[in-house]
Amino acid sequence: xxxxxxxxxxxxxxxxxxxxxxxxxxxxxxxxxxxxxxxxxxxxxxxxxxxxxxxxxxxxxxxxxxxxxxxxxxxxxxxxxxxxxxxxxxxxxxxx
Length: 96
Prior knowledge:
The chain contains no helices and seven strands. The chain has strands at residues 18-19, 23-28, 34-44, 47-52, 62-67, 70-82, 85-95.
């Protein structure tokens, strides 16, 4: 009989996240400028995560953002589809 495979996830985050909520506005500058509104999920010292309905954000893209705890520029690090929403993780580049 084979032993069960361990399924415990190893936490790879370097910073503690703090759950929060509120509105986030992300502006994508450039020739195809657009604005995306979403819901703040959590924040850390160097980034944040939001839920939204826009699937066009790409990893590496630099955006301007505003939410209740900060404003500035950030880089899209990852996207994932959860239920009918998109979740996106951002790395802060600068704060205003």
